[in-house]
Amino acid sequence: MLSRRRAYVCRNAAGASQSPSERVSIEISIFTCFIQGSLMLSLWLNVVASGILMGLVYGLVALGLTIIFGVMRVVNFAHGEMVVFGVYIGYWSVRMWEVPIIAAAALAAAVMFVFGYFLEKLIVKRFVNSPHHYQFIVFIGLSLLFSGILLVAFGPDPRPTASQLSFRTVSIGILTLDLARLQAAGVAGLLIVMLGAYLKYSSFGRSLRAAANNRLGGLIVGLIIPRIYAITFGIGAACAGVAGALISPLFDAQPYLAMDFTLLAFVTVIVGGLGSFGGALLGGLTIGVAEAVAALMFSPSMKTALPYALLIIILIFRPRGFFGVREV
């Protein structure tokens, strides 16, 4: 339709004479096309920007899962429940103490780190060297246990977090961004950068990478591998808890979110490459944009379907993900 209008305009512009009414009609047509194009461009840019913002949070969730797997070689099927713990911490922190979401996220990081540390010490360490199917059963059991605890403690009803940011937006050029989403993405991105720098340049980060690459070699040179594993599991749980608290203004707190976040984390790390730090971030951005585009192109109910379709395509053409490496 747009090309026909342009052809019509060109033909009339090339004519020898035009009446005033025809010229007005052409100008209105050109203006209408321009406005429609600008609105569509603005809509798409806002959708992609929203997907990128959520993708940063998804990347933080996936980062916790991929750190645990990359160092300990265990697959945490209870990761989604840890995210939901963070959502509830954000909900109760805002409701009881009316603290900002960033303060609630800091509280969630501390609580979930301690929780993950002692969970590894008490239960997970007994199965680190067990066959994978034993580990799967243990973590699925933990997932069901945590979901049951959440149901008993808080019930099945959704609990919205009444944050001051929930209904506020900020305009950046032609972009109109949800302030709660922007804050969550900003904090998540900052934490990803800080955690990456810490693991790369600190002495503990070097010890962690050594334990991940060669556990026996680490034991030989004197690394305290059980302590490293406990801290690693605590960091992974803290990433999940922080992400949950940051998105508490965007998602109602309810136990049934756990399975969605677990599947989302697995899709993200598989797309990016299981065990890859950069892959977790890229996978999160990819899934976030894919969800946003699917909601716009098809329907909001389809936004969870496109990431799984993308997962199938990735598994067919690059089973190791974007940054996964072939094991030898």
Brief summary:
The protein has 328 residues and is an all-alpha fold. 73% of the residues lie in helices and 2% in strands. It has helices spanning 2-13, 20-72, 79-97, 101-122, 132-154, 179-201, 203-213, 215-220, 225-246, 257-272, 277-297, 305-317; strands at residues 169-172, 175-178.
Task: Please provide a written account of the structure.
The protein has 328 residues and is mainly alpha-helical. The chain folds into 2 domains: 77-255, no CATH class; 260-328, no CATH class. The protein is built from 12 helices and 2 strands; from the N terminus they run H-H-H-H-H-E-E-H-H-H-H-H-H-H. Strands 1-2 form a two-stranded antiparallel sheet. A hairpin with a 2-residue loop joins strand 1 and strand 2 (175-178). The N and C termini lie far apart (56 Å). The model is unreliable at 1-16 (pLDDT under 50).
Order of helices and strands: HHHHHEEHHHHHHH
Described by its quaternary structure, the protein is single chain
Shape: globular
Kindly provide the radius of gyration, computed on alpha-carbon positions and rounded to a whole number of angstroms: 24 Å
Judged by helices, strands and strand pairing, the structural class is mainly alpha
Describe the sheet with the most strands: 2 strands, antiparallel
Number of domains: 2
Please give the order of strands in the largest beta sheet.
1-2
**How many DSSP-defined strands?**
2
Helix content: over 70%
Unreliable segments (pLDDT under 50, ≥5 consecutive)? 1-16
Q: What portion of residues belong to β-strands?
A: under 5%
Number of helices: 12
| Mean of residue pLDDT values | 86
Distance between the first and last residues' Cα: 56 Å
